[in-house]
Design brief:
Helices cover 27% and strands 21% of the residues. It is of the alpha+beta class and 807 residues long.
Length: 807
């Protein structure tokens, strides 16, 4: 209860004290000159790549993305909620569908909240829901079947728009046009009322995106003047006791305000505020200018609503109300909505322009939207003054780095983080330094596993932060303390309290009688250990490298040659008697998958895995069986995440993402080319349901970007990329070192999906992989495509991707 007790002492201050303490800040807020809307559109390049981004892609089906406004890596994700969970409700059947707060199939909107996950399979956030209304003022959301019973409004997709940094929708029931835009730490709303009815704006501090009742631990609201509020709430969701502070500013004074405490009583505050023009600190009847509890809502009322648009700005901070105000003042001091929108678009144009592509409209829409999703997280989690809340719950001052949060590492180590080393390399050291800060603040001496907003959720398995760090270090990104990083990596990998690590070290595998998901955990530990060995070797730490190279071979201990699959084993070394290669039981030997999929999870040593399975031909046959053997729903019914099926292959879930590229290792690269096109054509599109499963904080999108270019990092940290088949005629990476790496696919068509020949910088390329050096040194990779597979290209052993055993 440390956070709560600390905040309660703050709550003892009177409203007048708060007004006096903030008067200087508020005066600055109101006195600062408005931003002029200069002719900045010309600053955006003629080649406007933002036009190809459609934020609605992934909002249908199980993509779990949101359509609202955000800037690259922004702390604020201001987006509509179509099924926000309010206090006392518990819609278990719908919460998975609404992990991002919004689903394209819904017909009503409950409001606009300021924080959202993109593409997760779990839910939280939804901080500070705001909803404009006309006519009767409601304080409850109502239901989708009866929207008139609450503040919820119907809407139509024909009156809804979204682009990078901007979202708008017509709230049909109220005839209000709602528009949203953001800076990194602030959200901005613009409401245009089409009829001259009394308008209301609701701030609902009880609304959340989560499936637990009574999520709010504590909240409060303070009225500073007739345009400014300060608010706070602490929530128990996926993250426990998560704090967020808000500074809210209206573009014109409200005529009256109601502070609603559903735990206590409801106050109406007509005329209790000072008149326009008086000092903000001069507050009358201050006893009702503050309320606190677990169920707080605020209604502000405005007469003559249609005289001019009403704007609302919100600054966020995880540290304090003062910092929330400072973030608002610093990043968004004026009231020029269109200029803030333009600045957001300029940020996206700059970030997205790292990739230049040629192709059909639908192809560019998919590519640039995937890139857009890949550039949203990890996100900034630090105020403009450098302060942030650490995983220890204390307030820290960032020293030499910008703090980031939202590390969905079981998902994102695979493709997202390797992609960021090319498209946002300046952000990578900040992310790694944030991981190291997490390690230093952690009571468990651990790097993050699945963390967000100063909380470790311990979700998923492995310790994949080590892969992210090693991959960056080996690529020459070293703006962090490498000695500290290696210590953090080894401390994490040797932590006796985490997921049966002592058993793993002792036996070379995790026994299934000691821990569920034991096979998956063993395999992922082995890969993680390989990346530690790679980094230690590069740093000249021979003993550490030798130790972890040995541990990286632990996967062999769970390969059962009698069945030809990875199989669970108990402490006595006895194989799982109930083995079923297709079974994906919840809390069984595998994590969100089965043995068909996880047998191929030896990304760092595929060549040895091929030998274990029986050689190239047997390996190819096993891959074919994976893609061709239908997976019964009964086998996966306990896992919503296993989706996007082609046989046993599940593209909607991460354990399958590298598998299509493994034909290369068996000397059959044309089979990889065939499979990649099959996945692209059947499991992705430029429509709202265009993702085969959760985007998982950008991992699915990063897979698409790499695969569209024609290569993929099977084992990050290996620094090689297995070649697949390019999906666009030309894609260029504009690298931070000033060089450009271009992939051209001549004669590419629907039928011409096979590589006939390849050239790198004009010279024949006969290997079915490229390296990091090939990319970072710039140049041109040219493919000639054909409708007939070239069964001679890339087949020789020397031309296949390398593995740990062949380095």
């Amino acid at each position: 209860m440390k956070y709560l007790s600390n905040d309660m002492s703050t709550l003892k201050k009177t409203s007048r004290d708060w007004a006096l303490n903030t008067v200087a800040v508020i005066s600055l807020l109101t006195a600062m000159p408005m931003l002029t809307h200069a002719e900045e559109s010309s600053a955006i390049q003629v080649n406007d790549v933002t036009q190809w981004v459609d934020p609605f892609i992934g909002t249908g089906g199980d993509g779990h993305t949101f359509p609202g406004a955000v800037v690259p890596f922004g702390m604020v994700q201001l987006s509509p909620d179509t099924a926000a969970v309010s206090r006392g409700s518990d819609p278990q059947s719908e919460i998975y569908k609404h992990s991002a707060g919004y689903h394209y199939d819904d017909k009503t909107i409950t409001g606009f909240s300021h924080t959202h996950f993109s593409g997760t399979g779990h839910s939280d956030l939804g901080d500070l829901l705001i909803m404009p209304m006309t006519g009767k003022a409601h304080v409850e959301a109502g239901s989708e079947t009866d929207p008139d019973s609450g503040y919820r409004s119907r809407f139509n997709h024909n009156a809804e728009k979204a682009s990078p940094g901007y979202y708008s929708v017509e709230l049909s029931d109220y005839k209000i046009k709602a528009e949203l835009t953001t800076t990194a730490r602030t959200g901005m709303h613009r409401y245009t009322f089409k009829e001259n009815e009394q308008a209301h704006v609701l701030l609902d501090l009880t609304a959340s995106i989560y499936n637990f009742k009574n999520k709010v631990i504590w909240s409060d609201v303070r009225v500073i003047d007739n345009q400014t509020l300060l608010a706070y709430r602490s929530t128990n969701g996926w993250a426990k006791q998560r704090d967020m502070y808000f500074a809210i500013k209206f573009s014109r004074p409200f005529d009256s305000i109601e502070l609603i405490n559903q735990d206590n009583s409801r106050y109406r505050c007509n005329g209790c505020l000072t008149k326009k023009g008086s000092k903000p600190s001069t507050i009358v009847n201050s006893a009702i200018q503050y309320t606190a509890g677990k169920a707080i809502k605020v209604l502000t009322h405005f007469k003559d609503a249609n005289t001019e648009p009403l704007m609302v700005k919100v600054g966020l901070s995880a540290v304090s109300r003062k910092n929330a105000l400072e973030n608002l003042i610093t990043e968004n001091p004026g009231w020029d909505f269109d200029d803030v929108k333009l600045q957001a678009k300029k940020q996206w144009q700059e970030q997205l322009s790292v990739v230049q592509a040629k192709g059909k409209k639908s192809e560019k829409r998919q590519l640039y939207t995937a890139l857009y999703h890949a550039l949203q997280a990890p996100s900034i989690y630090q105020d403009v003054n450098g302060q942030y809340r650490g995983v220890d719950g204390e307030i820290h001052q960032a020293d030499g780095f910008e703090n980031y949060t939202l590390f969905s590492l079981w998902d994102t180590y695979r493709a997202l983080h390797p992609l960021l080393t090319y498209i946002a390399p300046d952000k990578v050291p900040n992310m790694i330094n944030s991981m190291l800060a997490h390690y230093q603040q952690s009571y468990d001496n651990m790097l993050p596993i699945w963390s967000f907003q100063a909380h470790e959720t311990w979700t998923m398995i492995g310790y994949h932060a080590v892969s992210v760090i090693a991959d960056a270090y080996l690529k020459g990104i070293r703006d962090f303390d490498s000695e500290l990083a290696l210590k953090a990596m080894t401390d994490t990998a040797n932590n006796p309290k985490y997921d049966a690590i002592p058993e793993y070290i002792k036996r070379g595998y995790v026994p299934m009688d000691k821990l569920s998901e034991s096979v998956s955990i063993t395999l992922e530990y082995a890969y993680n250990d390989y990346t530690i060995a790679r980094m230690a070797e590069a740093m000249g730490k021979k003993y550490i490298a030798k130790t972890f190279y040995q541990r990286a071979q632990s996967y062999k201990n769970l390969f059962d040659p009698s069945v030809g699959f990875m199989r669970g084993k108990n402490s006595e070394g006895v194989w799982n008697p109930d083995f079923d290669a297709e079974d994906a039981k919840l809390m069984g030997p595998f994590t969100e998958g089965n043995s068909f999929q996880y047998t191929f999870y030896v990304p760092h040593d595929v060549n040895t895995l091929i030998d274990l399975i029986g050689g190239d031909k047997a390996f190819e046959e096993r891959l074919d069986l994976l893609f061709n053997k239908e997976l019964s729903h009964e086998k996966i019914k306990e896992h919503e995440d296993i989706a996007g099926l082609i046989g046993q292959y599940a593209h909607g879930n991460e354990p399958s993402h590298h598998i299509a590229y493994l034909y290369n290792y068996a000397g059959k690269p044309w089979r990889t080319q065939e499979r990649i096109r099959q996945i692209m054509d059947t499991l992705s599109s430029d429509q709202p349901d265009g993702l085969a499963g959760n985007d998982d904080v950008g991992q699915m999108s990063a897979w698409y970007v790499f695969s569209a270019m024609g290569f993929y990092p099977v084992a990050p940290g290996d620094l090689s990329y297995a070649i697949g088949a390019p999906q666009l005629p030309e894609i260029s990476l504009n690298l931070a070192n000033g060089k450009t790496f271009t992939v051209k696919a001549n004669k590419l068509s629907k039928k011409n999906k096979f590589i006939k020949s390849a050239r790198l910088n004009g010279k024949p390329l006969n290997r079915s992989f490229i390296t990091h050096d090939d990319i970072i040194n710039g140049g041109t990779l040219t493919f000639v495509m054909s409708n007939i597979p070239n069964k001679h290209w890339g087949i020789e052993t020397k031309n296949r991707p390398t593995s740990m055993s062949t380095h």
